[in-house]
Amino acid sequence: MTLALALVFALLDPDAAAKMAEEADILYAEEKFGQASAAYADAYQDDPNPDYLYGWAQSERRAGNCPQAIELYREYAALRVSEAARSAAATNAKRCGGDIERTPPPPTEATGRPEPQTHRDSDREAWRSDAVGLSLVAGGGALGVASLVLAVHSQQQWRLAAEADLEATYARKIDRSRQTRTAAIICGSIGAVALVAGAIRLAVVDRNDRERRLAWTLGRGVRF
User: Fold this and answer.
1) Long-range pairs for 104-111: beta carbons < 8 A, 24 or more residues apart
2) Structural domain boundaries in the chain
3) Is the pTM of this model over 0.90?
4) CA end-to-end span of the chain
């Protein structure tokens, strides 16, 4: 069970994107804008946080890639951010000679990074799109059902052993009952661990998402 716990909780790292964004912040402060842009892009693809998208746009502008920066500012302004944040995006887009409200999106140049996409469901609860957490919960539930089925089968074999007329039949049924019971215990234990781990992960993801939404409602995270 120690190994099972280690394997499950090793997956509980919903802040991987935040760590990438912290590295991007450092690169940006060091004026390594090309590397910062790539790091922000990776963070945003892992977690569609407006903060990462804005950092990505700023890095592209400071690196001299204005067409890409304007497109990113436009996508950022379309998200549910504060008016101050949207105004900052518009101002920086104008520094690149673009208008996020009036001009059509410029053609995207091949940069070797993923294309930005409009997240129509950006206000949807983050836990609904957390594949790892949902998989843990679903897997834990399935193992729990399997454990119950095996437990019932074990009891059936035990009753058949008690009713057996031959000693060999009794021994065979008893062994099968014990093996099935052991399998039921293992499935139930792993299923419980997976279910709890999945629930914890979903709760953490949901909490972090709420904190980010609150921060952006207050207009935080804007770089000028």
Assistant:
1) 105/70, 105/71, 105/74, 106/67, 106/70, 106/71, 107/67, 108/67, 108/68, 108/71, 109/65, 109/67, 109/68, 111/65, 111/68
2) 15-122, 128-217
3) no
4) 51
What is 212-224 written as a DSSP string? HHHHHHTT-S---
- Cα dihedral value 40, 46, 49, 55, nearest 10: 0
Question: What architecture is domain 15-122?
Answer: Alpha Horseshoe (1.25)
Maximum pairwise Cα distance, the chain:
92
- Integer-rounded Cα radius of gyration of the chain: 27
pLDDT band at 61 (very low <50, low <70, confident <90, very high): very high
Give the pLDDT of residue 34: 93
Distance CA(78)–CA(73), nearest Å, equals 9
Residues 126 and 209: beta-carbon distance below 8 Å: yes
Band (pLDDT 50/70/90 cuts) for residue 143 is confident
Cβ contact 47:18 at 8 Å = yes
59 CA to centre of own chain: 24
